[in-house]
Design goal:
- The chain is mostly beta strands.
- The protein has one domain: Maltoporin, Chain A.
- It is 6% helix and 56% strand.
- It is built from four helices and 40 strands.
- The protein has a 22-stranded antiparallel beta barrel. It has a five-stranded mixed β-sheet with strand order 3-8-9-6-7. The chain has a three-stranded antiparallel β-sheet with strand order 17-39-38, with no helix packed on it.
- A hairpin with a 5-residue loop joins strand 27 and strand 28.
- It is globular, with a radius of gyration of 26 Å.
C-alpha cells in the first residue's frame, strides 16, 4: 500500500519518601525565621527581603500577596535562567499543575481538572491566554516561551474575571510590551542532542506617541530518540516564532496596542513510544491482532521506537490582536479584539512496530474570533469589574487511518466534521471593604454556548464514502456565582475563604457520530493564607480546597464493529477532589534562598459506571473510588539558590529536586505501569554569572540522573492491537547560554 501523505498545513510510602526533603525544608525555614529575628540594620533587612511580584490576574495590577486566590507567578528572567521552554517545563514549579502532550496538543491539568483525551469538539478545562487573548486550540499550549514578562497561573474555576470560562484554572502568559526606552537582547544557547536556541528582541520609541517591539525565537535539536527501523531521529525539534507589537499613546488617557504573532513547527516531535499491551493479542480474525504477532519488532527502549512509517508533526498558528484602553476619571474601559488561525497535521505509526499495519493521523484547521469588553472602577472602599465576551470558532477536524490488516481487510478510516462554537457571556466581580481589614468579593457569570457539527462523516472502507450526517446543534446556558471573604490579619498576613461554581460547555466529538455530551459543572471551596514574615524574608502561601464535580467530561478511545476507532466523550456522574497546597520562599541570608512547593490531594470518582472498550466482555464497570487521570496524590519541589559576589559580577547557583507520586493516565486505574507512572523524582542544576556590563552567562543540567519517566499514556484502537503508547519525559539535557542586553 502506498502511504497517503497529508499536505502541510502507593501513597503512604510516597509520602514517606517525600516527607524527608519537605521536613528538612520546613526545618530550614523555621531556622531561617529564628536566625533572622535578631535586630539588624535597615539596609540589611532590605537586602534580604523578597521582591514583590505584581500580577494582573484580577485584570488590575496587584501584588501577588494581596490577592485572595491561589495563584503562582514566575518572572520572565527566571524562566530563561532555568531553561524553561514551555508549559511542560513549568509544571515542576507550580503546585497541582500537570502538562503533557497528546497528539501534538497540550493537555493542561490543574488540581486534577483537565481533559485526558484531546479531541476536537471539547474545550480545555484550563484556559490559556496570551496578553489577554484566549487560545482555543490545545495545540497552542505547547508553543515556546520567548520575550516573556511573566507567567501567571490561577488555580480553581475562573469565570468572573475572564472572557472564556474555565473549570480548572487560567494560565496567563504576559509578554514584554513596547516602551519609549530603546532596549533589547540577544540570547543564544547550545546543548546536548545538538540543541541550538537563538532568541532576541528590540524595541523603543518611533515617535513621541508611538513605540514598537519585535521579538523572535528559533529552536532546533536532534531527536531524543531514534527510529531503529528507519535509522532516523524521533522527538526532535525545529520551531520558529516571531511577535511584533505597536503601542500608540495618543493621549495620557488612551492607548492602543496592536500585535501579531506567528509560530511554525515541522519535525518529528510528540512521537509516542511502545509501552506494552494491556490485553492479550490473537492471530485469528476478527480478534485483536498486534504487529508483534506477525513478526513486527516493538522497541522497548525509553526514547527509541521501531516504526515502519515516518512521523509527521506540522503545526502553525498566527494571530492579530488589538487592545484599546481608555482611562477616564472614574472608569477604565478596555477592549481586547483578536483573530487567530491554528493548523496542524500529526501522523504516526499505528501499531508501533516494524510490521506494516498502517498509520494514524489527525488534521485540524481552526479559525477563531473573539471580542472582550471590560469596565473597571475603583473607589476608596470598592473596586469592581464588569465584562462582556463574544467568541466564535470554526474548526475543520479530520481523523484518519490507513490499515492493511492481515487476514482481514484494508480499512481506510476517515472521520471528518466541521465544528462551530458560538458563545457569549457577561461577567462581573466587585470587592467591597467593610473595614480596613475585612473585604467581601461577590461575582457572577452568565454563559451562553452553542455548538454545531456539520458534514460529519465516518468512512471505514476504501472508496465507500457515506453521505454526511445532518447538521446538529445544541445550546447550553448557565449562571455561576462566586463569593469570597478575606481578612487582613496584619500588614503581612491575609486569610480568605471562598466558594465558586465553574461551568464548561458540552459539545460533539468529531467523527464519533454520537449525541452531544453534557456540560461539566463544578463547585469549588477554598480557604487560604498568604503571609510575609521575618521582615519580608519569608513568604508562605497555603490553600486548602475541595471540588465537587457533576457530569465530569471524560474521553475514551472506543472500538466500533468492523474495525473503526473513534474518540468519544462521556460524562462521569460525580467526582470529588480535596487537597492542600503550599508555596514557601525564604531568604535565609543575603546570599542564600530556599523554596518549596507541595500539593497533597485526593481526586476520586464518587460515581461512574462505564464499559471498557478493550475489555467489553467485562460489561459495565464500576469506577467509583478510582483516581482521576493526571492527579497524583502528592507532588512538589524543593530548591536552594546561592547568590555569591564574584569579581565585578554575581554568581547564582541553583539546585532543584522535583517529585511526583504515582499517577494514572486514564479512569480505569489499570494494574501495573502500562497506563500509569510510578512515583519518581528528578534533579536540576543551574549556574548563572552576571558580570558588570551587558553580558550574562549560564549553564544548566536538567534531569541530572537521566531518570526515565512518562508524561502520559494512551491506548490505541483495536485495529492496532490496543497497544499502550507513552509520551516519554525529557531525558538529561545540558547546555550553556550567553545573553547580551542593551
Amino acid at each position: 500500500m502506498t502511504r497517503k501523505k497529508i499536505p502541510a498545513l502507593s501513597a503512604a510510602s510516597s509520602v514517606s519518601a517525600f516527607s524527608r526533603p519537605i521536613a528538612l525544608m520546613v526545618a530550614s525555614l523555621v531556622c531561617a525565621g529564628v536566625a533572622t529575628a535578631a535586630p539588624q540594620s535597615e539596609s540589611a533587612a532590605k537586602d534580604q527581603s523578597l521582591d514583590e511580584i505584581v500580577v494582573t490576574a484580577q485584570r488590575r495590577a496587584e501584588t501577588l500577596q494581596s490577592i485572595p486566590i491561589a495563584i503562582s507567578a514566575i518572572r520572565g528572567g527566571d524562566l530563561t535562567e532555568r531553561g524553561v521552554l514551555n508549559l511542560q517545563d513549568l509544571s515542576a514549579s507550580i503546585p497541582s499543575l500537570n502538562v503533557q502532550n497528546r497528539r501534538a496538543s497540550g493537555v493542561v491539568t490543574i488540581r486534577g481538572i483537565g481533559f485526558d483525551v484531546a479531541t476536537a469538539g471539547a474545550d480545555p478545562a484550563v484556559a490559556v491566554h496570551v496578553d489577554g487573548v484566549y487560545m482555543a486550540r490545545p495545540v497552542s499550549a505547547l508553543t515556546n516561551f520567548f520575550d516573556m514578562e511573566r507567567v501567571e497561573i490561577a488555580r480553581g474555576p475562573q469565570g468572573t474575571l475572564y472572557g472564556r470560562n474555565a473549570t480548572g484554572g487560567a494560565v496567563n502568559l504576559i509578554t514584554r510590551k513596547p516602551s519609549q526606552e530603546t532596549s533589547g537582547y540577544l540570547d543564544a544557547s547550545v546543548g546536548n542532542y545538538g540543541a541550538i536556541e537563538l532568541e532576541g528582541a528590540v524595541g523603543g520609541g518611533l515617535s513621541d506617541s508611538v513605540s514598537a517591539r519585535i521579538a523572535f525565537k528559533h529552536s532546533q535539536r536532534d531527536g531524543y530518540g531514534e527510529n531503529k527501523f528507519l535509522s532516523k531521529d524521533v522527538n526532535d525539534l525545529d520551531a520558529s516564532s516571531v511577535r511584533g507589537q505597536l503601542l500608540f499613546g495618543f493621549t495620557d488617557a488612551f492607548s492602543l496596542l496592536l500585535g501579531f504573532d506567528y509560530f511554525r513547527q515541522d519535525d518529528a516531535a510528540f512521537v509516542s513510544t511502545f509501552n506494552g499491551y494491556p490485553v492479550a493479542c490473537a492471530t485469528t480474525a476478527p480478534a485483536r491482532r498486534c504487529g508483534t504477532v506477525y513478526g513486527g519488532v516493538a522497541n522497548t527502549d525509553w526514547q527509541d521506537v521501531s516504526h515502519n512509517f515516518d512521523p509527521v508533526n506540522q503545526r502553525s498558528s498566527r494571530g492579530v490582536s488589538a487592545t484599546a484602553e481608555w482611562n477616564l476619571d472614574a472608569v477604565t474601559v478596555r477592549s481586547i479584539s483578536s483573530w487567530r488561525n491554528t493548523k496542524y497535521v500529526w501522523e504516526v505509526d499505528g501499531d508501533q512496530t516494524t510490521f506494516n499495519m498502517g498509520f494514524v493521523g489527525r488534521d485540524e484547521d481552526s479559525d477563531q474570533l473573539s471580542e472582550e469588553l471590560q469596565l473597571l472602577g475603583e473607589t476608596d472602599n470598592f473596586k469592581w469589574l464588569i465584562g462582556g465576551f463574544y467568541f466564535t470558532e470554526d474548526n475543520d477536524a479530520l481523523g484518519y487511518a490507513d490499515a492493511p490488516i492481515p487476514d482481514f481487510r484494508t480499512l481506510e478510516i476517515r472521520q471528518f466534521a466541521r465544528l462551530q462554537t458560538d458563545a457569549w457571556a457577561i461577567f462581573g466581580q466587585g470587592t467591597y471593604s467593610l473595614s480596613d481589614q475585612l473585604s467581601v468579593t461577590v461575582g457572577g457569570r452568565y454563559s451562553s454556548e452553542k455548538k454545531t457539527i456539520e458534514g460529519e462523516i465516518a468512512q471505514q472502507l476504501p472508496g465507500v464514502v457515506p453521505a454526511p450526517d445532518p447538521t446538529r446543534s445544541k445550546s447550553w446556558s448557565k449562571f455561576t456565582p462566586k463569593l469570597t471573604i478575606d481578612y487582613q490579619v496584619s500588614d503581612d498576613v491575609l486569610v480568605y475563604a471562598g466558594a465558586q461554581q465553574g461551568f464548561k460547555s458540552g459539545g460533539y466529538a468529531a467523527g464519533a457520530r454520537t449525541p452531544a455530551f453534557n456540560p461539566e459543572e463544578i463547585w469549588s471551596y477554598e480557604v487560604g493564607m498568604k503571609g510575609t514574615f521575618a521582615d519580608g524574608k519569608i513568604t508562605a502561601n497555603l490553600a486548602a480546597f475541595q471540588f465537587k464535580y457533576k457530569d465530569l467530561q471524560v474521553g475514551f478511545v472506543q472500538n466500533r464493529p468492523g474495525g473503526a476507532v473513534v474518540t468519544v466523550v462521556t460524562n462521569a456522574a460525580e467526582a470529588k477532589n480535596h487537597g492542600l497546597e503550599a508555596e514557601i520562599v525564604a531568604r535565609v541570608s543575603d546570599t542564600f534562598r530556599l523554596e518549596a512547593n507541595a500539593s497533597l490531594m485526593k481526586a476520586r470518582f464518587d460515581r461512574f459506571f462505564t464499559v471498557d472498550s478493550i475489555l467489553p466482555l467485562l460489561g459495565e464497570q464500576d469506577l467509583s473510588g478510582n483516581a482521576l487521570a493526571y492527579a497524583p496524590d502528592l507532588s512538589g519541589s524543593v530548591a536552594a539558590q546561592w547568590d555569591v559576589p564574584m569579581g565585578s559580577g554575581d554568581l547564582a547557583v541553583r539546585a532543584e529536586y522535583v517529585y511526583s507520586d504515582k499517577v494514572f493516565f486514564d479512569a480505569y486505574n489499570r494494574p501495573g505501569t502500562v497506563m500509569a507512572q510510578d512515583s519518581f523524582g528528578i534533579s536540576n542544576l543551574y549556574l548563572n554569572y552576571t558580570p558588570a556590563g551587558n553580558w550574562k552567562f549560564g549553564a544548566f543540567v536538567r534531569n541530572l540522573s537521566d531518570k526515565e519517566y512518562k508524561r502520559g499514556a494512551a491506548i490505541s484502537g483495536g485495529i492496532w492491537g490496543s497497544v499502550a503508547i507513552a509520551s516519554p519525559g525529557t531525558p538529561r539535557t545540558f547546555g550553556v547560554r550567553a545573553t547580551y542586553s542593551f
